[in-house]
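Budget justification aside, the reviewers requested a transparent look at the raw inputs and outputs of the sequence design task funded under Objective 1. We therefore reproduce one unedited record. The lines immediately below are the structure tokens for a 345-residue chain.
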């Protein structure tokens, strides 16, 4: 496996496709990127007028982008095409890519939850065509396999230790940091409301100002933070808070690794998959209700030695989950599938 074509929305720093590109390049692979936003910018436009147009004509525009992808693969001749979130990919394009090498997909969202930003008819029709399907939830692995799909693999997110490592500000004005956007379920709002009496900092989109109803949460809102700023924001806090979006409740999210990689104690919503990744009260602390969240914040902020101990253990676990480990897992599956094909012949 020498030539890798990575397909995704963009190659912006910190995007999954960009991180994996760096990971493959570090293994001395030749990496080519194909970005939907360059192939057909209108597909990803955020303007109201263009979004309305997109709903009416997205498949036509996506077909044009798919033809550009097929031509890129024809010229590059990749051994492996890794597609991140194939929302815009036609099923026939998967088959065209397989004329040159294997085609793997990594779903960073839940393709089974019927949300229009996570799945569509093309994703559903193409699911059985991939040579390998990777996803971040063991429960979703089981659900996808139950559909009769073969070669489905659990593939957690990872720590990007090149850009995310312990960094601290001299005098931060917060003890608890939360990075994440307001969501329609208002779940995050309900949780955060219970701890506004503490020194809380919130980073995310302006929806925290325009849609959130709690004035004290709005007061804690610090605006957006860039990918490069994440380790300093988290690393300067005593506690990094992880409240899962509904779609991630059966798995985990990228914050699962970003918080402990900053050597900050992760206080996370509890589920079995997170418990399997970071041991409770040793490598992370967990909560299952707004009341428990407040109780844990109160207790931890009065136990600095415990905070430091758990933060250190969480950090040591997080750096075991680097991008090079994920690349090795993909390479192993690539070789295993190749051997299966040879045996079948």
């Amino acid at each position: 496996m020498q030539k890798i074509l990575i397909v995704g929305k963009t190659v912006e720093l910190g995007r999954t496709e960009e991180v994996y590109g760096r990971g493959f390049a570090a293994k001395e692979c030749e990496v080519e990127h194909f970005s939907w936003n360059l192939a057909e910018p209108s597909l990803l436009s955020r303007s109201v007028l263009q979004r309305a147009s997109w709903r009416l004509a997205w498949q036509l525009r996506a077909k044009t982008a798919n033809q550009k992808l097929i031509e890129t693969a024809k010229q590059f001749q990749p051994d492996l095409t890794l597609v991140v979130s194939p929302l815009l990919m036609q099923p026939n394009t998967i088959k065209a890519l397989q004329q040159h090498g294997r085609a793997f997909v990594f779903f960073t969202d839940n393709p089974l939850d019927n949300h229009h930003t996570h799945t569509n008819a093309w994703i559903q029709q193409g699911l059985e065509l991939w040579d390998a399907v990777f996803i971040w939830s063991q429960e979703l692995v089981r659900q996808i396999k139950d559909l009769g799909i073969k070669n489905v693999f659990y593939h957690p997110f990872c720590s990007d230790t090149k850009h995310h490592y312990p960094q601290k500000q001299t005098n931060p004005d917060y003890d608890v940091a939360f990075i994440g956007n307001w969501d329609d379920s208002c779940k995050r709002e309900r949780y955060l409301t219970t701890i506004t009496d503490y020194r809380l900092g919130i980073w995310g989109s302006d929806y925290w100002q325009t849609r959130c109803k709690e004035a004290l949460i709005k007061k804690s809102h610090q605006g957006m933070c860039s990918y490069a700023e994440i380790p300093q924001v988290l690393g300067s806090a005593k506690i990094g808070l992880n409240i899962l979006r509904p779609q991630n409740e059966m798995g985990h999210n990228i914050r699962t690794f970003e918080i402990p990689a900053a050597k900050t104690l992760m206080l996370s919503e509890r589920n079995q998959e997170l418990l399997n990744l970071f041991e409770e009260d040793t490598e992370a602390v967990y909560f299952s209700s707004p009341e428990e969240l407040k109780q844990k914040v109160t207790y931890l902020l009065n136990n600095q030695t415990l905070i430091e101990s758990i933060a250190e253990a969480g950090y040591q676990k997080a750096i075991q989950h680097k991008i090079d480990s994920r690349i090795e897992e993909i390479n192993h599956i690539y070789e295993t599938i190749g051997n299966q094909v040879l045996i079948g012949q």
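The domain at 176-318 is CATH 3.40.50.2000 (Rossmann fold). Residues 48-76 form the longest helix (29 residues). Computational costs for records of this kind are itemized in the attached budget.
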